[in-house]
Amino acid sequence: MKRENNIYVLGLIMMIASLFSCTDEKLDEIGENPNDPSEVPIALLMPQVGVDLAFGVSGTELAWYSSVFVEHTTGVHGQLEDADKRAGINSSMVNNTWNTIYADLLQDLSVLIERGSEEGAEEGAWNSVGIAKVIQAYAFGVATDAWGDIPFSEATFAISNKQPAIESQESVYTGLQSLLDEAIADLEKTSVVYHNANDFYYTGDSTKWIKAAYALKARYYNRLSKKDPIGSANSALAAIEEAFEDGDDNLVFSSFTTDATGENPWFQELNDRSHHAISETLFDMITNLGDPRDTLWFGTVEGSVVPAPNGSAQTDQSGDIYSRAATESDPSTTDDFYLAATSELPLITYDELKFIEAEAYLRLSNASDAYSAYLEAVEAALERAGVDASAITVYLGSSLVDVGEANLTLETIITQKYISFWLFQPLEAFNDYRRTGFPTLNNPDPAPARFPYAQDELASNPKLKLVSTNVPVWWAE
């Protein structure tokens, strides 16, 4: 027995000695989980950031709440009914979107940019780096428009700095333009490697992404209309010159699937939660204008479109009382269905740029160019919605739309732009409302002036200070 114990001890000593004699590389290899790689190639990061931008940033919480606040829809159940009646607006309502932006998307983009830039693991992938910076600018833009002052320059160092500095919205807006300039410069470089098949938006087309970068520059310049009316107008117009030429250039996510986890988030929301109904504000506006999009957009209840009053609707998750967006499962009066599992999600479009152009020219007292751009914007928005040519001609000829050059006002432009943003771009409609005060909303309780900061970040970052949702963001002051 003693001899066996000695052999056992000797074996144990030899095993321990062998561990100490391993190379550092071998020990690192032993400690790696093959199912959790420490480095992810650009080819895998690119589709992930594309999906996160469309679904997590543009298509869920912020969009759903904005839709209710700007009265594109009326909340008729759950959290959205609470928001419609101005209850439950607190720091827990947007945790998911904040975390998607800061903990997921921006971190992945940071890794992608580092890998593709000089001395990175995939050095010279400038096409991918430029795309990542455009997406980065889009995500930061959504964040600052929702919350105002945000983590920006330190936001991509989550592991090394869990309490990033909070920067003013004014400085963030300056940074957005610089970031987009960097993106354009990277996209103009000769790329060593392309990941075309992994780009869900433009399949790696640098020219298209450059146009999208300029489109975002125009949007962000125009947002400063109250801070610098003339300068913002001139800068927006200069950016538009380099941006989209027509609707074929639109930045749109069109890769949703019919799988339950791959559906358009608005379609998913309707089928899983059904918290939204057609807003009475929007319905009355469209009806009064004779807008042909009503039969394309709105579902019916017993053969009629029944909108929900803003701020006072009954609870109606089943859709028995109020109309929803027209879908195959809830058909409208036509065979066309606006909302489907695979419906495209626009992020920025040619018609939005034409509306910005009209507004910019109006600020510069150029009524002629403003009016031309306005009419082109309305026409492009109708075409994007699928309205047939004859109905477009009738609508553009209406005295309520063709108001005449001398009668064009900011309210006229923003009203048509507000309609064009339904259903998928309520964030932009909410931004325009906070910036211009148009259109007139009908909820007896005013919409909040900003979103509350996420509770998770308030709890973990003492640099983030609680701000009332009644306080306007900087560009809306």
Layout of strands and helices, then pairs:
Elements: H1 2-20, H2 24-31, H3 42-57, H4 61-69, E1 73-75, H5 78-84, H6 95-116, H7 126-147, E2 150-151, E3 166-167, H8 169-187, H9 206-222, H10 229-240, E4 251-253, H11 265-272, E5 276-278, H12 280-289, H13 294-297, E6 345-348, H14 350-363, H15 367-385, H16 389-396, H17 410-420, H18 426-436, H19 455-460
Antiparallel strand pairs: 1-5, 2-3, 4-6
* Element-by-element helix/strand order: HHHHEHHHEEHHHEHEHHEHHHHHH
Oligomer: single chain
- Judged by helices, strands and strand pairing, the structural class is mainly alpha
Query: What fraction, in percent, of the residue positions are helical?
Result: 40-55%
**Could you tell me the radius of gyration in angstroms?**
26 Å
Q: What gross morphology would you assign? A: globular
Strand order of the largest sheet: 1-5
Q: How many extended strands?
A: 6
Figure out the total of helices.
19
Unreliable residue stretches: 1-36, 331-335
What does the main sheet amount to? 2 strands, antiparallel
Q: What gap, in angstroms, lies between the N and C termini?
A: 87 Å
Question: Which range does the strand content fall in?
Answer: under 5%
Output mean pLDDT. 91
